User: Fold this.
Amino acid sequence: QVQLVESGGGLVQAGDSLRLSCAASERTFEVLAMGWFRQGRGQEREFVAAINWNGGNVDYADSVKGRFTMSRDNAPNTVHLQMDSLKHEDTAVYYCAARRPLSPGVYRGLHEYPYWGLGVQGTVSS
Assistant:
């Protein structure tokens, strides 16, 4: 029922920025809680950031706190991940995820999200 499409990503140098975007399908009418996860080569998929249904609550992994900013757009179920001061270790496939909220809070767990995008590659040269 819910389809997610990511955009952005690319190849940048350390210290540069990338901006990722994720939008739910036009047929989605429910307001969703959403998150960003990433998976480096040979690594497990890990939590990056999450936002609640109205954008008033955002949480970040310690590894990206102070460098990444997640936000909701005015369009329903559209989110962005502004990634600044990128490091080589930020290189990963970034995935957008969504779920129906049961509370006004955020969801940080990988298995709390039933809907996933296909992922977008972000590469930071060292």
About this structure: The CA atoms of residues 38 and 94 lie 4 Å apart. The chain has no helices and eleven strands. The chain has a mean pLDDT of 95. The radius of gyration is 14 Å.
